[in-house]
Write a structure and sequence with these properties.
- The protein is an alpha/beta fold and 389 residues long.
- It is 31% helix and 25% strand.
- The chain has two domains: 244 residues, Aminopeptidase; 109 residues, Alpha-Beta Plaits (2-Layer Sandwich).
- The strands form five sheets. Strands 1-2-6-3-7-17-8 form a seven-stranded mixed β-sheet, with helices on both faces. The chain has a four-stranded antiparallel β-sheet with strand order 12-14-10-15, covered by helices on one side. The protein has a two-stranded antiparallel sheet with strand order 4-5.
- Helix 5 packs antiparallel against helix 6 and helix 7 crosses helix 9.
Length: 389
């Protein structure tokens, strides 16, 4: 172990498991995490944190160090995913590991409650609605304190990172949903010449998007239609309305901007060709732009705990965590934690090796202690620019 190591003694695996079991038993969808946030609040208050709600279910807890210093946040997502059984009934399940993320962040917080940091302020942010891609935006809208850095963590599938390995830079793709709403003119299906077929315009738009090619893309990307809806139109009626939802993915924010422009242009051209109008609703998504200094400190923490850190890892999935840097100007780093997770994230059968939560918590503790040695951004003579890891 290095002399500058911040690794605590062995964490109580049974306590981690008990916390996970408690959270796993109360899965709730985005922005409805009432029982989850109330239970986490009770744990934080008992540990000595100051806690306040952000919105309906978000939590921001704070713990002062023994002296002045930077403000560092650990963020955990709380929401579960909704599924349907064969009989059509709905249920929720923590199929993306958010219960494990909350377990590790809460456990790291409890450690610092017993061993207060020498300087600075530790914030714990328990965020609702990550799966909706609006949770981080809502936390920013509610108002966060000045933060000199924010760290996140996420379990990874076995195919990306096995148990015992971790990366300090999990490089998601930006997720950019676009919904196009076409309006034509209804007529009897026996007299199509009297109408303007909104479904035909939608079909032309789907084909046009499939044919998009970016020059010199500089990274991974995809654009495809995932939902088409003619609003219950009858078989013998030329449809007046039709909507299409497109899912866009982009490895960088530059690619995301160019891809969004290309899809919007293709959709409007398809509508115009058939005489329809088209209204587009585009939600901005973000690829990561991590702070190099925080990423390096996360790498050192992983190396302390696991012996070696994996290089940055590209994944086609997305995360609303990146809104904190893109919209909130908060320096960030995001850790990917090997967990032998199978068969995959968002599967109702998802399971992982719970042994990952102990090293994951230790990595967070080590990383926080390192980050709390940094100067506040307002104190720094030269601020480190944000950059893509």
């Amino acid at each position: 172990m290095n002399e500058d190591s911040f690794i605590p003694g062995e964490l109580d695996a049974s306590a981690l498991e008990e916390t996970w079991q408690r959270l796993h038993a109360i899965p709730e969808p985005g922005f409805e995490e009432v029982r989850t946030s109330r239970w986490i609040e009770s744990q934080l208050t008992a540990a000595g944190f100051s806690v306040r709600y952000l919105g309906k279910t978000g939590l921001l807890a704070s713990l002062e160090g023994r002296g002045p210093g930077p403000s560092i946040a650990l963020r955990a997502d709380m929401d579960a995913l909704s599924f349907r059984r064969e009989d059509g009934t709905a249920y929720c399940s923590h199929a993306c590991g958010h219960d494990a993320h909350c377990t590790m962040v809460l456990s790291a917080g409890k450690y610092f409650a017993v061993h207060p940091p020498a300087r600075g302020t530790l914030y714990l942010l328990f965020q609702p609605g990550e799966e909706t891609m609006h949770g981080a935006r809502e936390m920013l809208r509610c108002g966060l304190p000045h933060l000199d850095g924010m760290l996140g963590i996420h379990l990874r599938p076995r195919s990306e990172l096995p148990l015992g390995r971790a990366t300090p830079a999990l490089l998601h793709c930006a997720s950019i949903p676009i919904t196009a709403r076409f309006r034509g003119r209804a007529s009897h299906a026996a007299r199509p010449q009297l109408g303007i077929n909104a479904v035909s315009a939608a079909a032309r738009a789907v084909t046009a998007v499939d044919e998009i090619r970016l020059d010199r893309p500089g990274g991974l990307w995809s654009a495809k239609a995932t939902v088409i809806d003619s609003q219950g139109n009858l078989r013998n009626v030329i449809p007046e309305f039709c909507s299409v939802s497109f899912d866009l993915r982009a490895e960088t924010n530059d690619i995301g901007k160019r891809l969004t422009d290309a899809v919007e242009t293709a959709v409007r051209a398809a509508a115009h060709r058939l005489g329809c109008t088209a209204v587009l609703e585009t939600e901005q998504g973000f690829a990561p732009e991590y702070d190099p200094q925080l990423t390096e400190l996360a790498r050192l923490a992983i190396t302390d705990v696991l012996g070696v850190a994996d290089p940055p890892l590209h994944t086609p999935g997305s995360e609303d965590f990146h809104a904190y840097s893109a919209l909130g100007d908060i320096p960030t780093a995001y850790i990917g934690l090997g967990a032998d997770l199978e068969p995959g994230l968002h599967s109702p059968q998802m399971h992982f090796d719970h042994a990952c939560m102990s090293p994951g918590t230790r990595i967070l503790i080590d990383a926080v202690n390192r980050c709390l040695q940094l100067p506040r951004r307002t104190e720094a003579a030269d601020s480190t620019p944000l950059g893509t890891a």
